[in-house]
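so my prof wants the structure for this chain in the tokens format not the other one, which i didnt know existed until like an hour ago. anyway here's the sequence
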Amino acid sequence: MRYKGKSLSLERKDPSQLGEILPQMLRIMHLSSGMDEQLVMRAWDKVTGAGPYTLSKSMKNGVLYCSISSSVVRNQLFYNRLAIVEAINNEVKADPLYNGRQGREPLKILILK
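here's what i got, hopefully its the right format
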């Protein structure tokens, strides 16, 4: 099997767990950065509970931009943003699909609009 000039061998001599193979496949197919962003987006809803108030969210270069519909919720999130960034990073790093490098945080800054 070939993917953009790279050989992907599905033939294994030793049995491997799917959890070991999947991160390698994501890295080879250059999907890991997009997967990491999706993990951060999912963690935002889980950690903050502000999903119903979130109008839009996007991520670029380790910065998560969130538009919040309620000024009260946005104000509470603003004062807790450092704890939220830390909690999101812990949540993402605990996911087996996270492919980030050691010492690199998936989320650096949270911007609320």
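also thought this was worth mentioning. The longest helix spans residues 32-48.
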